[in-house]
Prior knowledge:
0% strand, mainly alpha, single chain, 72 residues
Amino acid sequence: MSDSFEIQADRLEVMVEEMQKAIAHARIAASHFREGEVPRAAAHVLAIQGHLAKSASLVQEISEQHSRHALV
């Protein structure tokens, strides 16, 4: 596998990790909301947004790298 493909694969794996963290925070936030612990829930919602932003950033990097090599 070329170095470029390995880098893309690594980015995708990091993206998956970030999304899994977002899912974990979402579960915790839901639990806190059910328990009426709104400030704690809100903190986890912010963490969700951070992990999703990181995931989106990684997808952006992958798409930019692909566009440099796309044949059009």
